[in-house]
Amino acid sequence: MERVPNLTRADAVAAVRNPLAFIAERWTPTPRTVRRAALAALVMSVVIVVTGGAVRLTGSGLGCPTWPKCTDNSLTATSEMGFHGAIEFGNRMLTYVLCAAVGWAIIAARSQKPYRRGLTRLGWAQFWVVMSNAVLGGIVVLVGLNPYTVAAHFVATSALIAIGTVMWQRTREGDAPPRPLVGGAVRQLVWFLIAAAVLLILVGTVVTGAGPHAGDSSEVDRMPINWETVSKVHAVLAWIVVSLTFALWFVLKAVDSPKAPLNRTRDLFLILLAQGVIGYVQYFTDLPELLVGLHMLGSALVWIAVLRVLLALRERTQAEADLPGPATEAALTRA
């Protein structure tokens, strides 16, 4: 067993000045640890979507009527606030869990050897999105669940999921320049798919803002749009995404694509089918809360699956500068 070195005064000063560099000098995580850290941050981003939906669907959006405190006189929910206060405050506490997961991803990426600046920046990008979205969430409460701020809150979370997905993928790749696995026409088709998915998400927030689940039992403003009409537009966009996915799969088969793009496209198609079933059932059963919550989970999974299709169109090997040379290999062999 190796002896743990004593911390000197200089070590303590270095830890205070730059704790990430201090940790990175003394710890090298395995690639598996870095991948798991990135995945944990991504999973928590999806969890926060589901719990945020639970807040809205249980009418607990104003369970804590102010921000950053829960009430004017209490930082936490009180027993008098009941079920709604507990739900809203619990969702706020999960933000700290999300911050911890993102922080762990940043530390793991920063400590990896060799140092990968791009991977660390993706971790920091998630951190700042979480911070800004937490402030936006507070604004949502302070303006009484204004539907436009609620929509912006969800869009920001979708951005967080996008960054988390890219970081998770990058932990399994090298830092060499990306090499396309398919032709330009196929990549262009995928970008059309991405654009349609973004429109699908944006219109979905309008459905939410105009629909019956306002987020609280009190009088809450809604978007002045017929939600059933917007729901039909949302369904049309969903069919466009499904059609583009099927067309992409057919094209990939025709050009004898590598397995990765084909598999990711297949996964997306299956998730879209499940999401479509949930969407139609909830529409024809007057939007039961459980199905709406599942549909929100499905929205996050569809977005991740679409991004994974895009990321599967290229490969990035380990950069030549990071490969061990003859001298390094000899040193490792002697060690």
Structural class: mainly alpha
Q: What is the N-to-C order of secondary-structure elements (H for helix, E for strand)?
A: HHHHHHEHHHHEH
The CA-CA distance between the termini, in Å, is 18 Å
Low-confidence sequence ranges: 321-335
Shape: flat
- Work out the number of β strands: 2
Work out the helicity level: over 70%
Give the spatial strand order of the biggest sheet. 1-2
Average pLDDT: 87
Supply the number of helical segments: 11
Oligomer: single chain
Q: How much is the radius of gyration in Å?
A: 23 Å
Instruction: Characterize the main sheet.
Output: 2 strands, antiparallel
Strand residue percentage: under 5%
Q: What order do the helices and strands come in, and which of them pair?
A:
Blueprint: H1 9-17, H2 19-26, H3 31-57, H4 82-111, H5 117-142, H6 147-170, E1 179-180, H7 184-210, H8 227-254, H9 259-284, H10 289-311, E2 314-315, H11 326-334
Which features characterize this protein?
71% helix; mainly alpha; 2 strands; two-stranded antiparallel sheet
Q: Care to describe what's here?
A:
The protein is mostly helical. It has 11 helices and 2 strands, in the order H-H-H-H-H-H-E-H-H-H-H-E-H. The protein has helices spanning 9-17, 19-26, 31-57, 82-111, 117-142, 147-170, 184-210, 227-254, 259-284, 289-311, 326-334, and strands spanning 179-180, 314-315. It has a two-stranded antiparallel ribbon. The radius of gyration is 23 Å and the shape is flat. The model is unreliable at 321-335 (pLDDT under 50).
Could you provide a short overview of the structure?
The protein is mainly alpha-helical and 335 residues long. The chain is 71% helix and 1% strand.
